[in-house]
Structures are given as C-alpha cells and as structure tokens.
Task: structure prediction
Amino acid sequence: MISTMVQRIREVLVFLFLALVSKANGVKPIFSWGVGLPFEEAAGEAYCLSWRLAVETNNVRGWRTVPTKCLCHIENYMIGGQYTRDVELIVEQIMSYANGILLSGDGMDAWIFDVDDTCISNLLYYKGKRYGCDPYDSVAFKAWAIKGGCPAIPAVQQVFVTLVEMGFKVFLVTGRDEETLGLPTTQNLHDQGFVGYERLVLRTIANKGQSAVTYKSGVRKQIEGEGYRIWGNVGDQWTDLQGDCLGNRTFKIPNPMYFVP
Result:
C-alpha cells in the first residue's frame, strides 16, 4: 500500500514538473499521457505503454494475463492501426535483409515462420477473451482453431509469397497439435494464401509436454541436419526465437495478448 502511494506521488510530481517546464519554455509538453484524459486515466495509459514495451523487449516474462487496466490500451493497439503499422515496418526490415542474400541455387536456403499470430491471426478469438485479460483456455482455443477460420496477417502473407518466389524454402513451424489440428490448420493456411511452402511442422506425441523453446529448437536442428541453411526466423513469441539453431537473423512480430512459455 505504501509503495503504491509513493509511486502515485512520484508520478504526480513528474507530471507537474514536466508541465511547469513546458509552460516556462512556451512549448507543448513532449510527453503524451492522453490528450484531454483525466490524470489517473492518462497515467494508466502511460503504464500500459510501458508494459507493452517491456513485453516486446522480453523484459516482462512468463506473464499469464494482460493487466485488466490495460484492456482498452491493448484493444486500441490491436485494432486501431498501430499494430498493423508495426507489422508492416517489420516486414520492410525482413525484405531489406532478404534482398541482400545471395541464394546458393542448391535449394537449401531456408526460412522459418511460426503460424499463430505470425502468419494467421487469432485476434477475433482474443477479442472474446478481452484481448488476453482472461486466462488462457486450451479447450476454447482448440475449438476455435479447428474451425479453420483464422484470417491471414496481410503483410506477413505478402512477404511469405515473396520469399517463396525468390527461391527460399519456407518451413512453417507451429505448436499446434498434429493429431487434432493438422488438417484444419493446413486447410486454413491454404485458404489464406499460404501455399508453396516446403513443410508444415506440428507437434506430435513425441513432442508432447516440451516447452516451446525445446520443441522448436529440435525442429530447427532437424532442418539444419538435413542440410538447410536457415537465413531467417519469424515469430510472435520470444520462445519462437530462443534456443538452438535460430538461423542467421530473427524477426519478432508484436503480440501483447499472450505469452507462450
């Protein structure tokens, strides 16, 4: 309780100091806690901006749910245009990097993509879960995924097609269960324009219970063991981009709605 009060007082003092400095200099404040918002609401928005940044930089780890007070912030981020702009900027970086690669011509130049919220979006599902404020529900998610109605993330679908056309062998690696979600996932990807990839890899019984890092490291190790050179690795979770055989470069798609351990 005392620490909360101290933090609140600190926030108020910082706010007043910056306001006085801005007024003295005759300029608008350089900070933005929400134009026209009451102070507490504006401070809450500032906290959620910091929380989302900490998530994307992997400084907040192992979190189970989005803070309830950040529901509106995450909703606005995901559907208000900023998420789309962020993904498009990352895709620009992917293409800038890919265009500088000289392919060997032996058909062994590879690229890896995660599936959920990297290639196809579960945003409609997470809207019903208050954008991650509700705890993860494996049964409900499987029921959603088995319908095969996830839309493509447009910028990622475009870069996927471009990489295939350039001659990269693209591997799609997902933590989805092969036994129950293999066919609907394959069909969903096909319906959304993800065709021409080298292989779709899903969890089998042998991978059951493995962490995402252990499972995906094993898949990448197998791919490299077949002689492929992994040039790029794209995922929305840090656990997609950690472990062994990561490839030459990794790219993180933003996802503040959930964390996969």
User: Anything to note?
Assistant: Residues 58 and 68 are 20 Å apart (CA to CA). The radius of gyration is 21 Å. Residues 27-35 have pLDDT under 50 and may be disordered.
